[in-house]
Amino acid sequence: MGNILFLIGITLLLGPARTFAFFARKQKWRGSAAFWVGILLILVRWTLVGFAVECYGIFVLFGEFFKTIASFAYNIPVVGPYLAKALQAAGEKAGANDRAHKDLPV
């Protein structure tokens, strides 16, 4: 149910054409494939494996946004700086500096 609501939310936020363009980008084919295979595995009751595959797909698809989220997370009291460091590191692992939002449809 959460996967369906996630996809509906992205579609409502970006619109159908931009949502399709986001998932169909050539640079993100591994992430898109992993995301859809993860959803399929969850639907056929391989939930743990499907969840892991889907998490990988989300990391590849949305990893470049982690650095942006880190700048907002820094302002959270007490845990903000630690959370921001973790998100910054995850963004660097996902290659956010290499792409720098150049190919985003939004």
Automatic annotation (TrEMBL):
Compartments in which it is found: Golgi apparatus membrane
Major localisation: Golgi
Pfam families linked to this entry: Got1 (PF04178)
InterPro entries in the cross-refs: Got1 (IPR045176), Vesicle_transpt_Got1/SFT2 (IPR007305)
A single GO BP: endoplasmic reticulum to Golgi vesicle-mediated transport
Presence of the UniProt keyword Glycoprotein in the record: no
Keywords assigned: Golgi apparatus, Membrane, Transmembrane, Transmembrane helix
TM region(s), chain numbering: 35-62
Bilayer topology: Multi-pass membrane protein
Gene Ontology CC: one annotated term: endoplasmic reticulum
Family, similarity comment: Belongs to the GOT1 family.
Stated name of the protein: Golgi Transport
Species whose genome carries this gene: Friedmanniomyces endolithicus
